[in-house]
Amino acid sequence: MQSEGTSEKAPIAPMQMSQSAIERDYAPSSGARKIRTILFVLLAIHMALAWVYFIEQIIGLIQYYNVPKDIRDYNAAFSYISNVVFGAILILYLAVYIFAVFKYARIPILI
Q1: What is the 3-state secondary structure (H, E, C) of the chain?
Q2: Where are the domains of the chain?
Q3: Considering the entire predicted model, what is its pTM?
């Protein structure tokens, strides 16, 4: 059984990587540049707020450990520690994402 879309006279050759439609002759338009600039600004604001949150939680954790041991609430310690850890994870995630957006600036799917 032959498929109806192919012909024996003209075999289909696989596309080479140098012929990729995504990377070939891609020049971002002014609209894409504007959207990418807005994305960078929003990512910078998000990164700044993530740093503020991270520093705020570290200060809270330091203040918690300055309280005498007999009046400490140990459930609050878990909350502060987990917030500091997740704040650090958020900062690392944003740094990797910003790096990927800068490195793969020619790929329009990241917009």
Answers
A1: CCCCCCCCCCCCCCCCHHHCCCCCCCCCCHHHHHHHHHHHHHHHHHHHHHHHHHHHHHHHHHHHHCCCHHHCCHHHHHHHHHHHHHHHHHHHHHHHHHHHHHHCCCCHHHC
A2: 46-111
A3: 0.63
